[in-house]
Amino acid sequence: MEHGKSTLFRCILNIIPKDKGEALLDNNPINYSILDRIGYLIEEGSLTPEYTVYNQFCTFGILKNMSDNEIIESLLYWLKKFDMLEYLNMKIKNISKGNRQKLQFIVSVLHNPTLLILDEPFSGLDPISVDELKSVILELKKDGRTIVFSSHQMEHVELICDDILLLDKGNMILYGDLNEIKNSYNKKKISVVGKIDIEKLNNENIFKIVNDKFDTYEIYVNGSSNVTSVLDSIKLFDVQNINISNLSLEDIFMDKAGIKYEE
Predict the structure, then answer these.
(1) Burial level of 210, CB count in 10 A (0-12/13-18/19+)?
(2) How many domains does the chain have?
(3) What is the pLDDT of residue 32?
(4) Most exposed among 32, 116, 122, 154, judged by the fewest C-beta atoms under 10 Å?
(5) What is the spatial distance between Cα 100 and Cα 47, in angstroms, rounded to a whole number?
(6) Domain presence at residue 178
(7) Which CATH number belongs to the domain containing residue 104 in this structure?
């Protein structure tokens, strides 16, 4: 699988065998005896097109050892949460891709798990639905759930995660506390609005310049101590606004993975 994240999740849950290592939950090996404590949203769809929403969730609930009352109570709660009560008796095949993704999420939380594994949960969602689901995930986090979350969208990772693991082609390139990583990364980004001649902006401390929009530049600097020198070079041009910031998680990933912008 791309980047190895889905494979890693499946190894954790014993869906596919591990070559080595062990996955633990509260210091106990993850096996069938504790899988009911785990919710898993897979990247690919797992809903049965011919089932109604009600029948689909009854099936999943039974697999999680829930009673009939527990299933319907939890299902109605989550459908109401997502303003989807009208879908209760609708067949899965007649529901839009975005709303099917919300149903996939409800599958993962139906049984009130303590550990929630979300593989690309925002796939197929429009921006409004993304914000809606992010709010729900943050509520669950605040409620004390442990959430393992994967995404290609780094802004989602920065919003939701406390600790991160960055994978590139299956290899670990960064792991640890998100804030500590960002604060300790000894590179800075200078955002500039103005008229700059990149060819004349000669400063050995600049390692990358991005000019995606007219008169807007992202200038990346090696070492916090070199920012003043770069600012002196920038101020030789006609600039209207300058902002200095830490690198975003996406910037750090691209730098660590060796991905280069065209200058």
Answers:
(1) middle
(2) 2
(3) 80
(4) 32
(5) 8
(6) no
(7) 3.40.50.300
Q: Tell me, what's the pLDDT at 259?
A: 56
* Domain of 192, in residue numbers: 186-256
Domain check: are 72 and 156 in the same one?
Answer: yes
- Whether 175 maps to a domain, the answer reads no
pLDDT value at residue 1: 35
113/51 same-domain check: yes
Q: Are residues 157 and 199 in the same domain?
A: no
Q: What is the CATH number of the domain that holds 190?
A: 3.30.70.250
Dihedral sign, CA of 16, 20, 26, 32?
positive
Q: What is the pLDDT of residue 151?
A: 86
Domain boundary among 127, 161, 195: 161
Q: Give the closest residue to 68 by CA, choosing from 57, 77, 78.
A: 57
Q: DSSP for the chain, please give it.
A: -GGGHHHHHHHHTTSS--SS---EETTEE-STTTGGGEEEE-SS----TTSBHHHHHHHHHHHTT--HHHHHHHHHHHHHHTT-GGGTTSBGGGS-HHHHHHHHHHHHHTT--SEEEEESTTTT--HHHHHHHHHHHHHHHHTT-EEEEE-S-HHHHHHH-SEEEEEETTEEEEEEEHHHHHHH--EEEEEEEEE--GGG---TTEEEEEEEETTEEEEEEESGGGHHHHHHHHTTSEEEEEEEEEPPHHHHHHHHTT-----
| Chain segment 204-229, per-residue pLDDT in tens | 898 888 887 889 999 999 888 899 99
**Does 128 share its domain with 208?**
no
Q: Is the pTM here over 0.70, yes or no?
A: yes
- Look at residues 161, 178, 196 and tell me which one is the last residue of a structural domain: 161
Counted residue by residue, the chain has a size of 263
